[in-house]
Amino acid sequence: QVQLVESGGGLVQAGGSLRLSCAASGRTISSTAMGWFRQAPGKEREFVAALSWGGGSTDYADSVKGRFTISRDNAKNTVYLQMNSLAPEDTAVYYCAVKVDPSWIIRRLPSGYGSWGQGTQVTVSS
Question: Is residue 72 a contact partner of residue 108, using CB atoms and an 8 Å limit?
Fold first, then answer.
């Protein structure tokens, strides 16, 4: 069983940047596809970004494409989400998760993921 711990959230002004980290323990995630999701108050959890197990494929929600970058450091067993040009609508709790469904086709569905972390709050002020 893998445990995930997110960190790096905080309060930032619009236009600023943050880098979220998702540190895994219990087993290696180097051969596992990973995803980032977010959930704002009163809204459903939504897909943000996904990274294939080999790192050769990525996917981003339209709302973050060109601003966010997902990456991994296998030596540190950690996945990152670099967030640039942040806007107030990016305010949410951000979660990372292990993709448990082997199909890359459904990479945007929360149901395809497991071992969710506890989340890290990102607040963007205008």
Answer: no
Mean pLDDT on 27-44? 94
**pLDDT, the chain, mean:** 95
Tell me whether strands 78-83 and 18-25 are parallel, antiparallel or unpaired: antiparallel
**What is the amino acid identity at position 83?**
M
Q: Report the C-alpha gap between 68 and 19 in whole angstroms.
A: 9
Overall average pLDDT of the 82-93 stretch: 98
Beta partners for 73? 78
Is the confidence at residue 105, as pLDDT, over 90? no
Give the span between the Cα atoms of 42 and 65, in whole angstroms: 23
Residue 44's DSSP bridge partners are: none
Distance between CA atoms of 63 and 85, rounded to whole angstroms? Answer: 12
Average pLDDT over residues 3-24: 98
Return d(Cα 27, Cα 125) in angstroms, integer: 37
Q: What is the largest CA-CA distance in the chain?
A: 40
Instruction: Tell me the average pLDDT across 9-37.
Output: 96
Distance of CA 67 to the CA centre of its chain: 13
